[in-house]
Design brief:
- The termini are far apart.
- The chain has 19 helices and 10 strands.
- The radius of gyration is 22 Å and the shape is globular.
- The protein is an alpha/beta fold.
- It has a 6-stranded mixed β-sheet. A 4-stranded parallel β-sheet has the order 4-3-2-5, sandwiched between helices.
- The longest helix is centred in the last third of the chain and has 17 residues.
- It binds iron/sulfur cluster.
- The site of iron/sulfur cluster has 14 residues, from helix 15 and helix 17.
Length: 428
Amino acid sequence: MSNLSGTIFRDMVATDSADPVSVAEYEKTGGFEALKKAVKMTGEDIIAEVKKAKLIGRRGEAHSFGNRLEHILNIPETPKYIACNASEDEPGTFTDRFLLGRLPLKLVEGIAIAGFALKAKASYVYVRGEYRKLQKQLIKAIENARNAGFLGKNILGTGFDFDIHVNSGAGAYVCGEDTAVLNSIEGKVGRPRIKQPPHLEGGGGFLKPALINNVESFVQIPTIIGMGGDEFLKTGHPDSGGTKLVCLSGHVRNRGLFEVPLGGLTLREIIYDDELGGGIAGGKDMKFFHLGGQSGPIGGSDLLDTVYSYTDLKKAGLSVGSGAVVVMDETVSVIDYVKCVVEFFANESCGKCVPCREGTRHILDILDRLSILGAAGSDDLETLRRLIRTMTVAAFCGLGTMAVSALNSAWRHFKAEFEANVQVGEKT
Ligand code: SF4
């Protein structure tokens, strides 16, 4: 199920039955007009439009895409590279799968515009290993764009050379992290590495300046250049223009991908509106929701009236993250749920640093005891709190620091549930 009639992705409806890798079909919907416009602009002018649009990169960290572009442009060192992360290796998030399947040429166009703005040498799209069919389709789309003069040598007669290559991931969630994905693209083991100046924000591809972002972010670039940054900003929140693809799953009646205007709807509307989530299946009550992917926070029904925007969610201790909205009904144990989340991180930990490698295992042991009435003692709760604090400050990369985000927020909202199991245990 999907509802993609929002402002930015409306052209998907027009391409519903079209061949997604056909340049001719894509051009019928205005495809490559933005690139034609962009090559007549300077890099600074292109970036100025992205900054006016207030595009927030559609990744977990939610940084300004325009600022990132500007930072890389201002590093004098060359050549420059672009990496587009399409590894999407977590449950509950499926925007890349949709965009790679339906709009591969829009992704190509967005990356080409960013490449032109930075006068970059090449781009690498790192696609989740399991998306084999989509990898082949993207390679075909790139080839077709190259044959039509939109990639390769002397793009549109401007003298600018730029190409896009596709790399396959091998199923490691940690390759969602900037330096890990660069390591993997460079042919090394996909583990995080230290960011060295002046490449702190990009991590440095081949030790050169590199812009890294994800599929949904690059796909927005042609729209921004096409309509102009000011108009794009009007389609979303005053602090963050555009719409967001939201992946609704769990116990909602309508599961699928939906486009929502940033700042235009509350979480309650997203979950309960008939055109969107449609409410909780089986007439049950909602117990909690988990936002932004596995590393995102959990919230209870008291936060349902929070507006879905980067600013409002952050104020409420929540986050947009990957766009995932997993909804659980009243029958679900929050302890069992966070145990699944921590288990995911324990399996995905690359093992490089102790706080994450050992911390996830210890937390899992405690959650195991907590999930069985009477098996945990009150000292387990104190140990749990200490482990959460240690991992948050001492893990080497974002995977480890964010692995406890769901658990930490679940503790805040459902403390009584954690304590109840311990109290029963201590009485018996
Ligand atoms: S926090 Fe440490 S062990 Fe965990 S994924 Fe990052 S580098 Fe690897």
